[in-house]
Amino acid sequence: NVYSQPDTEVPDEPFANDFTNESSPKIEDDDTRSPTSPQPRRRIVSTSSKEQCYDTADADTPKPIKLDSAAQAYIDKQRKLQEDLTDEMVGLARQLKETSQTISQSVQSTEKILDSTEEAIEQSLASTGHTTTRATKVYSQSSKTSCFQWLLIFAMTCVFIMVVLLIRVT
């Protein structure tokens, strides 16, 4: 591919020294990957073993340099990749917000259900307590009634025996 873009002037930055013959970077790339895939992107691996030091005075004074079409294409590709990643992050943030709102609504509905269940249980306990009190009253009245009934039966038996004895004696 031959690019018909004119050479662009950019200020001198620390990466400008990376394009010399002595320490040119090697770019590892697998062209089969799509730019939006979750796999790792391109890496720049320097072939020189020594560290490059930059003077802060040199970095403060911009010196315009001309980039060839390959460097400009590389920068454009990296910008496009950054834009794609930014768009992907915005989409993920939107999904996260929607998911958190859905979970919040679910928690609120569950809380309402738990509140209504708690009220139903309290009403059930109150009703059970009232029923237990009534059952206790009925039982105590029935035991009193049964004692009274037993006393009446005993008294009637005694009266019957006395009547039988009175009839035999006379």
Break the fold down into its secondary structure elements and pairings.
Layout: E1 9-10, E2 25-28, E3 43-46, H1 56-60, E4 65-66, H2 69-169
Antiparallel strand pairs: 1-4, 2-3
Structure, described:
The protein is mostly helical and 170 residues long. It has one domain (1-141). Helix content is 62%, strand content 7%. Strands 1-4 form a two-stranded antiparallel ribbon. The N and C termini lie far apart (146 Å). Residues 1-35 and 45-57 have low confidence and may be disordered.
What's the short story on this structure?
By secondary structure, the chain is mainly α. Helix content is 62%, strand content 7%. It has one domain (1-141).
- Measured between the Cα atoms of the first and last residue, the distance is 146 Å
**Rough outline:** rod-shaped
The major β-sheet equals: 2 strands, antiparallel
How many individual domains? Answer: 1
Number of strands: 4
How much of the polypeptide forms β-strand, as a percent range? Answer: 5-15%
List low-pLDDT spans.
1-35, 45-57
Neighbour order of strands in the largest sheet = 1-4
User: Over the alpha carbons, how many angstroms does the gyration radius reach?
Assistant: 48 Å
SSE pattern, N- to C-terminal: EEEHEH
The overall pLDDT, averaged over residues, is: 75
The total of helices stands at: 2
Q: Helical residue percent? A: 55-70%
| Derived structural class | mainly alpha
Subcellular location: Endoplasmic reticulum membrane
Membrane topology: Single-pass type IV membrane protein
Family: Belongs to the USE1 family.
Region (Disordered): 1-63
